[in-house]
Amino acid sequence: MDMPEPNSAILSRKAEIVARLRRVLPPSAVIDDPVETRAYECDALTAYRCPPLAAVLPSTTEEVSAVLRVCHEERVPVVPRGAGTSLAGGSMPTADAVILGVARMNDVLETDYDNRIIRVQTGRTNLSVSGAVEENDFFYAPDPSSQLACAIAGNIAMNSGGAHCLKYGVTTNNLMGVTMVMMDGEVVEIGGAHLDAGGLDLLGLICGSEGQLGVVTEATLRILRKPEGARPVLMGFDDNEVAGQCVSDIIKSGILPVAIEFMDRPCIRATEAFAGAGYPDCEALLIVEVEGSDAEIDAQLQRITAIARTHNPVELRESGSAEESAKIWLGRKSAFGAMGQINDYMCLDGTIPVSQLPYVLRRISEMTKEFGLDVGNVFHAGDGNMHPLILFDANKPGDLEKCEAFGAEILKLCVEVGGCLTGEHGVGIEKRDLMTTQYDPGDLDIQMAVKDVFDPQWLLNPAKVFPLASSEARRIAAE
Ligand SMILES: Cc1cc2nc3c(=O)[nH]c(=O)nc-3n(C[C@H](O)[C@H](O)[C@H](O)COP(=O)(O)OP(=O)(O)OC[C@H]3O[C@@H](n4cnc5c(N)ncnc54)[C@H](O)[C@@H]3O)c2cc1C
């Protein structure tokens, strides 16, 4: 992975820069000891590492603003960081950058049940947003599998999704407003506690902008009343393509389940060994969940199981109790951990039109032979968001490079069939150099012109999202 050479002038001024940061933050909020900064050297894309110049952990928007003012004046790059669970290397530092972590900013600032909103500091974890309102039977819908750890900050920056986003939408559909600090320290409010602010949809621009435009410190989120009930059905098939066709048919029928999750045999076997969820040993497994009153659930599941039967499932198991539902979800929720027990893995995140699922699964299976690496497929099939997990051995010379080449081919295939490079994990450094597969130079230029407006010196989250060759002229001009 190519990264720009660190700016030696910044490296040589480290002590001075850290001293200035210490003047605007409490002592425990500035970390510059090389042993301690190692904690920030990577995110969940652990194949790439680089300790930052320093890390700062502010507690308020005002402190974030003060940090950014210092870094702006010193021309020091800043990498915003939530919980560091990005699978795209989105929060990986460069050696001349300050990590700005919002982990200490985790307060609930306001809860308004009448208007169904909650305002939080963005370091709050995703799951604890629901935790803050569950006593009153409310919840926050976007549910990344990493929700126990990941922060709302990263969710907004990556426009994260999750298993239940088929029905409720992803982060952008549940975000009402943000407080954001610009690179020069100016604090701006975008959106608010109401639908659709006047003027341009800047909130739509901020959500998914991967820390390129500003540091989001507070967020107003939509909360929803919990559904009366939910029930999953587990379906096993002896063929990946047939399972893919079944997903396509369910969506085509107009039913909107809350989730349709897919796992293939390597994932099923791994999770069975890891979690013992009682899954059948078959080629492909679907978990389809619907919500509503008992009568609504019965009616939807009747139609869904009728569609499944036309595809000759080897197993069709409707949950009969809360325990059975938990068991059906147990394997899916353990899938990443289970695959990680077998070997190192790289988790991809392309999207495709649902109708292309059978074809894409077949091509991936053919490619495993070409590249000699195994793949487990586990993903949000309802909205065509694929997560092939490519297994490789980080200690075996050449395996990582082979894995990257394989991953690139899968993502190119997603674009080729009408999908895109990323569904929910973002571009980061992982897909940065593939952006030219999806966008021509003119498209990229327009995207970079947006960054020029928000961050004219190109100091925020360097070397991410835009191919280095495409952004080189701008980066040099900004120095
Ligand atoms: C096991 C596992 C399962 C996962 N499952 C899912 C899933 O189901 N769905 C999904 O969408 N993702 C998933 N992810 C990916 C990851 O959890 C999400 O991308 C998440 O939103 C990252 O949040 P974070 O707080 O950890 O962000 P970080 O990793 O810290 O940062 C991610 C990006 O956000 C930017 N950023 C961070 N804070 C700010 C801020 N305050 N202002 C502006 N930009 C900021 C960073 O610069 C970086 O570009 C998974 C990851 C793991 C490890």
UniProtKB/TrEMBL annotation:
Its cofactor is FAD. InterPro entries: FAD-bd_oxidored_4_C (IPR004113), FAD-bd_PCMH (IPR016166), FAD-bd_PCMH-like_sf (IPR036318), FAD-bd_PCMH_sub2 (IPR016169), FAD-linked_Oxase-like_C (IPR016164), FAD-linked_OxidoTrans_Type4 (IPR051914), Oxid_FAD_bind_N (IPR006094), Vanillyl_alc_oxidase_C-sub2 (IPR016171). Keywords: FAD, Flavoprotein, Oxidoreductase. The keyword Flavoprotein applies. Transmembrane segments: none annotated. Pfam families: FAD-oxidase_C, FAD_binding_4. PROSITE patterns: FAD_PCMH. Residues 48-226 form the FAD-binding PCMH-type domain. GO terms for molecular function: FAD binding; oxidoreductase activity. This is Glycolate oxidase. It comes from Shimia abyssi. The lineage of its organism: Bacteria, Pseudomonadati, Pseudomonadota, Alphaproteobacteria, Rhodobacterales.
